[in-house]
């Protein structure tokens, strides 16, 4: 840990305090890719919302142009034809009551959970388990859908979910540090554009107050709005 801490401090000292253009931020961040593993790149934003107000919570999903550079494990709550469609589309696990029971028993070996609307009676009681982990299927995030084939394929290809936290912040993984500059810029731009498109009508004043990009083992770099 001492070596990591020294490395982190050295990198942090190279970061300018003022925001820089996105292209410059990405270029500098990629220079921080000096670890033995392929770090995940994340965008963190602070929004001008009141998270205490339910009509100002921000939640959604967006398909990034270049995916996120990892295998996404998709669980699907479906039955009958929809269950077959989910399997054919590449879902990692498909079920109904049986899947719900597995999750209640502690099974969490998936990154996203999808459901068809007719399965919400089964999914609803799992809110206390899935909700805190950000895995509860929701129409707002595109994880409750009538087109389960498209849903599975989009999330397997790198569609991401996001939601605001209690501090009015939204963070999302947008790729790997091994991505090209252009691919990272396009992914980050797609995420920010979609985030702007879901601004709550009740939010007043500046919406996106700050944007920071970082990698798993690297300090954050502030980006010009």
Describe this structure in words.
The chain contains 8 helices and 9 strands. The strands form 3 sheets. Strands 7-1-8-9 form a 4-stranded antiparallel beta sheet, with helices on one face. It has helices at about 1-10, 20-30, 80-90, 95-105, 120-125, 125-130, 150-155, 180-195; strands at about 40-45, 60-65, 75, 95, 110-115, 160-165, 170-175, 210-215, 220-225. The longest helix is centred in the last third of the chain and has 17 residues, at about 180-195. The chain has about 220 residues and is of the alpha/beta class.
List the keywords:
single chain, 225 residues, alpha/beta, 4-stranded antiparallel β-sheet, 3-stranded parallel β-sheet, 8 helices, globular
3D shape: globular
Tell me about the biggest sheet?
Answer: 4 strands, antiparallel
Low-confidence stretches: none
Could you tell me how far the N terminus lies from the C terminus, measured between alpha carbons in angstroms?
A: 34 Å
Strand order of the largest sheet: 7-1-8-9
Helix content, binned percent = 25-40%
Number of helices: 8
Proportion of strand residues: 15-25%
Q: What is the strand tally?
A: 9
For the CA atoms, what is the radius of gyration? Answer: 19 Å
**Oligomeric state as shown:** single chain
Instruction: Please identify the structural class as seen in this structure.
Output: alpha/beta
**Could you report the average pLDDT, rounded to the nearest whole number?**
92
The helix/strand order is HHEEEHEHEHHHEEHEE
């Amino acid at each position: 840990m001492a070596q990591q801490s020294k490395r982190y401090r050295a990198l942090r000292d190279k970061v300018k305090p003022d925001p820089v253009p996105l292209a410059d931020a990405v270029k500098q961040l990629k220079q921080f890719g000096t670890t033995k593993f392929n770090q995940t790149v994340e965008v963190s934003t602070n929004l001008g919302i009141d998270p205490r107000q339910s009509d100002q919570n921000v939640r959604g999903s967006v398909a990034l142009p270049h995916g996120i550079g990892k295998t996404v494990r998709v669980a699907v709550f479906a039955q009958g034809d929809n269950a077959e469609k989910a399997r054919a589309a590449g879902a990692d696990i498909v079920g109904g009551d049986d899947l719900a029971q597995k999750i209640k028993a502690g099974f969490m070996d998936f990154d996203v959970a999808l459901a068809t609307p007719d399965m919400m009676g089964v999914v609803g009681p799992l809110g206390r388990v899935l909700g805190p982990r950000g895995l509860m299927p929701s129409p707002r995030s595109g994880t409750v859908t009538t087109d389960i084939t498209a849903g599975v394929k989009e999330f397997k290809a790198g569609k991401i979910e996001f939601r605001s936290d209690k501090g009015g912040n939204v963070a999302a993984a947008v790729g790997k540090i091994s991505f090209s500059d252009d691919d990272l810029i396009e992914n980050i731009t797609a995420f920010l554009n979609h985030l702007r498109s879901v601004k709550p009508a009740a939010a007043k004043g500046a919406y996106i107050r700050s944007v920071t990009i970082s990698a798993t083992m690297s300090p954050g770099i502030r980006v010009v709005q």
